[in-house]
Design brief:
The protein is built from twelve helices and eight strands. By secondary structure, the protein is of the alpha/beta class. The chain has one domain: Rossmann fold (3-Layer(aba) Sandwich). The structure holds NADP nicotinamide-adenine-dinucleotide phosphate (NAP).
Length: 317
């Protein structure tokens, strides 16, 4: 398998851990000619993950490229470095990396609230800067979370998502402060608003680039809740898993949901499916707010300003 000729490239953000790692492993195992780039902020973790996947699958077509979504300069450097490499055409992008943060406000290198900055703004800029490099047909997968939906149990448990506008999410003050859970769920709502708006723009431009969103379910065992964190210890325990079941939360494993995430890229039946939201393997509806075209456009335009990015509307026209 190590010598399979690669014909296309996929970039997976946060591919060194949890769901991104399992997704990369599934793609490597599928042996469909992908060169897989693990876009990670930590070089040791990134190269080690690539080596582990090679060892476990026999597929050598993986490489690491440094990407810190908490820095717009790093996102730009990543894209420049990617473009300078002589890799097979870019036909896949999985916006998977994500964080939760505590109650106090932390900031990205550019002064944005960290959760919104990493989960939404970093991926917004990355995707837009990569668009001219895509070879059609291509697929984009945006990893959200069903906790973005305040109408369901998961959303209520973690903290009601609030779309306050990009400027207020990026620069919270005492008046517009969200709880730790709300910062996460609101950023995941932004992931969906972004994915649906991108899909509409690409369809208008007759681009053969599909954009689908993904909820992996609750997957204890990843590092999302933070290393050595009490939440992680509880979630990973037998008690935590039983509690999730009793509460009726849709639960999965990193392995199963990583496979389901990869399927959005690999499955030929999904070739023309775009603008949809999948919970593990099932297409479901997202929250009412996530379908609001007005706030999606507003989020897009404000994200352009915040990231100082030249708009795709200009590129497509
Ligand atoms: N696990 C769940 O129950 C669950 C449920 C719903 C949705 N999700 C979503 O699934 C996605 C993957 O999460 P996971 O559960 O697999 O967690 P994870 O194991 O913590 O993986 C997150 C990945 O994101 C990377 N990352 C964090 N900050 C970054 C930055 N500034 N720049 C680049 N990469 C960065 C991490 O890198 P490091 O290793 O260097 O930290 C890691 O590779 C997230 O978008 C999350 O919101 C997870």
């Amino acid at each position: 398998m190590g010598n399979t000729r690669t014909t296309k490239t996929v970039i997976i953000t946060g591919g060194n851990s949890g769901l991104g790692f399992e997704c990369a492993k599934t793609i490597a195992n599928a042996n469909q000619g992908w060169h897989i780039i693990l876009a990670c902020r930590n070089a040791n973790k990134g190269t080690q993950a690539a080596e582990t996947i090679t060892k476990e699958t026999g597929n050598k077509n993986l490489s690491f490229l440094k990407l810190d979504l908490a820095s717009l300069a790093s996102v730009r450097n990543f894209v420049a470095e990617f473009q300078s490499k002589n890799l097979p055409p870019l036909q896949g992008l999985v916006c998977n990396a994500g964080i939760t943060s505590g109650e106090s406000i932390e900031y990205t290198k550019d002064g944005f609230e960290l959760t919104f900055g990493v989960n939404h703004l970093g991926h917004f800029l990355l995707t837009n800067l990569l668009l001219p490099s895509f070879a059609e047909p291509a697929r984009v997968v945006v990893v959200s979370s069903n906790t973005h939906n305040p109408a369901i149990r998961e959303g209520k448990l973690v903290g009601q998502a609030m779309y306050l506008g990009a400027e207020r999410l990026a620069h919270p003050n005492s008046e517009y402060k969200l709880t730790s859970g709300q910062k996460y769920t609101s950023s995941k709502l932004c992931n969906l608003l972004f994915a649906y708006e991108l899909d509409r723009i690409l369809k208008k431009g007759n681009k053969q680039i599909t954009v689908n969103s993904f909820d992996p379910g609750a997957c204890p065992g990843t590092n999302l809740a933070g290393e050595n964190n009490i939440r992680k210890t509880i979630m990973d325990s037998w008690l935590g898993k039983s509690l999730l079941k009793i509460m009726g939360v849709v639960a999965s494993t990193p392995e199963k949901s990583g496979e389901a995430m990869a399927r959005l890229l690999l499955d030929s039946k999904l070739e023309n499916v775009s603008g949809k939201y999948f919970q593990i393997y099932e297409e479901i509806a997202s929250s009412k707010d996530s379908y609001n075209k007005t706030i999606a456009k507003e989020l897009w335009e404000d994200s352009v300003k915040l990231t100082k990015y030249q708009d795709i509307y200009t590129i497509l026209s």
